[in-house]
Amino acid sequence: MATILLLASALWLCALLCSASSPPLLVGKRTSENEISYELTITVDKGSPDCGVTRDLILVNGLFQPSIEALVNDTLKVHAGGALMA
């Protein structure tokens, strides 16, 4: 019984530490009233974002699963390069 309780506590702690309230935000450069420019570098690195087994992750500017914010009618210009672009 103590082993099950210890395992449940470890899983709860792992879930608590690994949960994020919101994904990281990429910041673009507003070049005009309706245009935002992003420079993205795509890389591969090891990590365990879900507190599981370490695996290869695709990162954007060093971030795992980042988000981009834009307004209605904005035009996004995205320039991407890096390890996966070859």
Can you describe this structure?
The protein contains one helix and seven strands; from the N terminus they run H-E-E-E-E-E-E-E. The protein is an alpha/beta fold and 86 residues long. The protein has a single domain, classed as Sandwich (Immunoglobulin-like). Strands 2, 3, 4, 5 and 7 form a five-stranded mixed sheet that branches. Strands 1-6 form a two-stranded parallel ribbon. It is elongated and about 45 Å long.
What's the layout of helices and strands?
Layout: H1 2-18, E1 25-26, E2 29-32, E3 35-47, E4 55-60, E5 63-64, E6 67-68, E7 75-82
Main features:
two-stranded parallel sheet; 5-stranded mixed β-sheet; single chain; Immunoglobulin-like; elongated
Helix content: 10-25%
Report the end-to-end length measured between terminal Cα atoms.
53 Å
Order of helices and strands: HEEEEEEE
Which CATH-level-2 architecture?
Sandwich
Uncertain spans:
none
What's the shape?
elongated
In total, the number of domains comes to 1
The count of helical stretches stands at: 1
CATH fold field value: Immunoglobulin-like
What share of the residues does DSSP label as strand, in percent? 35-45%
Question: Biggest β-sheet, characterized?
Answer: 5 strands, mixed
Mean pLDDT: 80
At the fourth CATH level, what is the homologous superfamily? Cupredoxins -  blue copper proteins
Radius of gyration from the alpha-carbon trace, in angstroms: 18 Å
Strand segment count? 7
Regarding CATH, which class?
Mainly Beta
Supply the helix-strand structural class. Answer: alpha/beta
